[in-house]
Write a structure and sequence with these properties.
By secondary structure, the protein is mainly alpha-helical. It contains six helices and no strands. The protein has helices at 5-19, 23-36, 41-54, 58-70, 77-88, 92-101.
Length: 102
């Protein structure tokens, strides 16, 4: 059993909410998860994606992607999502630097 088992269970609920286009509910559940597990990478990654793709709040998206990367360990998704984020913003040089770094 790892320290994030409860958070992992809630991520499945978040994914279901997102697939049902219940974005606000998914965001609120992610914030709840982070209030209990502030260093849980997947919650930061999902929040970054929501702020980027669904709410177009790029400041919050970047914050959560950066936190997801900080805590990522072996989780691939934040690297991919942050790359797409930089490309969508037209920050190609920053994307290349990021890609070379990671």
């Amino acid at each position: 059993m790892n320290e994030f088992d409860d958070a992992e269970d809630l991520i499945f609920k978040v994914d279901a909410l997102i697939s049902q286009e219940k974005i606000v509910e998914a965001k609120n559940l992610l914030c709840y998860v982070l209030s209990n597990f502030p260093d849980y990478c997947k919650s930061h990654n999902h929040l970054g994606w929501i702020y980027h793709q669904k709410m177009t709040n790029y400041t919050k998206a970047k914050t959560h992607f950066k936190l997801a990367l900080k805590y990522a360990k072996d989780y691939f998704s934040p690297y991919m999502n942050y790359s797409y984020f930089l490309i969508d913003l037209g920050k190609y040089d920053e994307m290349i630097t990021f890609g070379e770094q990671y």
